[in-house]
User: Which sequence fits this backbone?
């Protein structure tokens, strides 16, 4: 039995919990549960109304009431980058899930346990069934920010992980959510961690504003601030103009909007260069599983680690130092890593923390060498939804798993904008990154303080907050 984990559980406990799977009774879950039971606590359903969103189908609109799905609920905030909208009638019909300031939102399908607190700027908003909402039942319950921080902490996230059920796609039932244990502390701790949470949100908003300013400046400089791609679904091409030259027979490839964008970029007053003309591209390495999950080895970047911003992953794998690779496949600070399979066009800037990493074979590494172009400018260009992402969309091959060849992106036209203008754009992006990093730090401090209060005592938690203010 050496190496096996065994939990001894009374049958009555199994019947009460209505869970017969051994994973539910893993030691880490039982230890965490006992920690919480030994604290002053309440069950979530005792203090909050717990419900979920719209179960039926809805008609999506271009404007109206924000319609949240699980993908909009991120680590402590609501991401409205790709938000959808529904009519006010849908909001009235599903009034139980109509969002108010201070409501707690949690993803309950797919990626479980992502949490955010609704703020005034989010309203009006409603949601689908993949999101649950907690509404306070009475005055005097702990503030929403504390509840959210606890649910994001080790002990809160373990409850989400433990209570998930289902096959391929996990989900949390409302009944399970109502039974979540919430530890209770003094108002001093509630207020202090809530202040950190709110400051974190304020900084995140400022970060978004700075990034948006950078995008606006870029669009203005290259003359695309008023560019609206054509919605015309038909474009007539001869065989010589289409398949003979491009090797593509899918009609979407030849939509007018793509031609319009390329013409705009190529007509920039100071000219343009192709992406292949300013960057070297390298495909990633295939890595056998025998080299996986080794500590203190070479960092290994996979598709799941890439996001459209700076490289950041808390689940980065490492490889054995004995893994053989060529130096050209090791990343350097300032490189851009782009997903070529799955989420095509998703890109991350490599920071110093991820220098000397290996990239997976389903990614392309773009290494910059022309000092006329700042990598942050190139990254902003490639990830902008009206520019680079539209170019990726044209070249994407819509197979069972969307993909794009590294050879398909080398002809992307990159405007040669003035160096001083590049610097202005880059300064705004760097300010955005700085604000975002501080926002994330404050959130981590607040979560850690909650964990210290649970594991040690409230005094140590308050001291930790003070030391990290």
Assistant:
């Amino acid at each position: 039995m050496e190496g096996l984990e065994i939990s001894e559980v009374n049958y009555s406990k199994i019947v009460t919990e209505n869970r017969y799977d051994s994973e539910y009774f893993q030691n880490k879950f039982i230890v965490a549960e006992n920690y919480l039971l030994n604290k002053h606590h309440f069950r979530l359903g005792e203090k909050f109304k717990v419900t979920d969103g719209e179960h039926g189908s809805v008609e999506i609109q271009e404007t109206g009431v924000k319609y949240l799905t699980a993908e909009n609920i991120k680590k402590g905030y609501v991401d409205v980058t790709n938000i959808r909208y529904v009519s006010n009638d849908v909001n009235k019909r599903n009034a139980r899930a109509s969002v108010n300031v201070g409501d707690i939102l949690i993803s309950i399908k797919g990626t479980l346990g992502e949490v955010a607190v609704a703020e005034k700027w989010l309203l009006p908003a409603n949601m689908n069934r993949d999101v649950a909402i907690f509404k306070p039942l009475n005055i005097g319950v702990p503030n929403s920010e504390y509840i959210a921080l606890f649910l994001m902490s080790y002990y809160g996230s373990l409850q989400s992980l433990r209570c998930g059920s289902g096959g391929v796609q996990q989900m949390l039932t409302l009944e399970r959510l109502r039974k979540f244990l919430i530890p209770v502390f003094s108002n001093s701790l509630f207020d202090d961690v809530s202040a950190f949470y709110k400051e974190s949100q304020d900084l995140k908003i400022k970060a978004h504003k700075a990034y948006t300013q950078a995008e606006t400046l870029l669009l203005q400089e290259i003359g695309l601030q008023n560019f609206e791609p054509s919605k015309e679904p038909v474009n007539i091409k001869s065989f010589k103009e289409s398949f003979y030259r491009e090797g593509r027979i899918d009609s979407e490839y030849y939509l007018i909007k793509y031609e319009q964008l390329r013409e705009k970029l190529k007509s920039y007053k100071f000219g343009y260069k192709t992406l292949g003309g300013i960057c070297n591209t390298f495909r990633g390495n295939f890595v056998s599983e025998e080299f996986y999950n080794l500590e203190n080895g070479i960092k290994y970047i996979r598709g799941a680690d890439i996001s459209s911003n700076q490289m950041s992953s808390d689940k980065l794998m490492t490889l054995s130092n004995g893994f053989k690779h060529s130096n050209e496949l090791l990343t350097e600070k300032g490189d851009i890593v782009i997903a070529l399979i799955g989420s095509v066009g998703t890109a991350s800037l490599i920071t110093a923390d991820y220098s000397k990493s290996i990239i997976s074979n389903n990614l392309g590494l773009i290494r910059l060498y022309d000092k006329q172009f700042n990598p942050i400018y190139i990254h902003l260009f490639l990830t902008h939804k009206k520019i680079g992402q539209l170019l990726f969309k044209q070249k994407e091959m819509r197979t069972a798993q969307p993909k794009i060849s590294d050879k398909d992106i080398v002809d992307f036209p990159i405007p040669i904008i003035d160096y001083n203008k590049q610097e202005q754009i880059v300064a705004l992006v760097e300010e955005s990154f700085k604000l975002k990093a501080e926002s994330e730090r404050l959130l981590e401090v607040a979560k850690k303080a909650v964990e210290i209060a649970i594991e040690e005592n409230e005094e140590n938690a308050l001291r930790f907050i003070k030391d990290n203010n």
Observations:
- The chain has a mean pLDDT of 87.
- DSSP finds 15 helices and 19 strands in the chain.
